[in-house]
What we know:
With 307 residues, the chain is mainly alpha-helical. 43% of the residues lie in helices and 6% in strands.
Amino acid sequence: xxxxxxxxxxxxxxxxxxxxxxxxxxxxxxxxxxxxxxxxxxxxxxxxxxxxxxxxxxxxxxxxxxxxxxxxxxxxxxxxxxxxxxxxxxxxxxxxxxxxxxxxxxxxxxxxxxxxxxxxxxxxxxxxxxxxxxxxxxxxxxxxxxxxxxxxxxxxxxxxxxxxxxxxxxxxxxxxxxxxxxxxxxxxxxxxxxxxxxxxxxxxxxxxxxxxxxxxxxxxxxxxxxxxxxxxxxxxxxxxxxxxxxxxxxxxxxxxxxxxxxxxxxxxxxxxxxxxxxxxxxxxxxxxxxxxxxxxxxxxxxxxxxx
Length: 307
């Protein structure tokens, strides 16, 4: 608050309260004037607004420049030797000479990993482990108080000449007298049996057929001669004991053909050899084809079949 002075009031000739009020009025007016000036003066544009406005103006200028310089080619232009206008050719050359950043990045050589130590392969690691193991074994063997003896190596034997085969020994054939009488075969101790010497081509079946009247009785000869191991293999000159009883004369036999029978099988069963089918065919003249016989037919089997 202003302080009223009596001296000022006396010298000015005005009342003291009037002078104080005028001073306050002047200060209020000055303050209002300063505030109004600050409000009316525009604030300076910021730096960001300047950059945005400049970018928009440059973009608008480029668009206007591109639209104004774009040339529409016609058929007349295509007939000329140099089709492109100087402006388009200049832009084309500039674009071709300017490297593509993507291609440049792809073509850039990859950084070498020479700075990084190369990792050893599995084979190299295995070889190193094997060498270390051998070194450890050698060190442990060196600590032993005695020297390890090595096994002697075998030396190859000297080649020897093959032995000559011994000369063949020739045995002079024993002279044979064709007029010499054959030694009589001793009779068996068992009564009712006779010894027969097998000839070349004989078999138990043939012996049974000659001595017993039927080749199918060869098993009786086998029971009388226990020394025979294989009835299919009897050697010439062997002695076979046969009964002394005269065989009863065999009568012709009639059989009925079963399913699956053939003349060969029937001859093999009845006479001991399949080639005796001719005897069966001769005894049955009604057989037209020996390879085809019907089931249920009767066959006449002769008592003997001499090939």
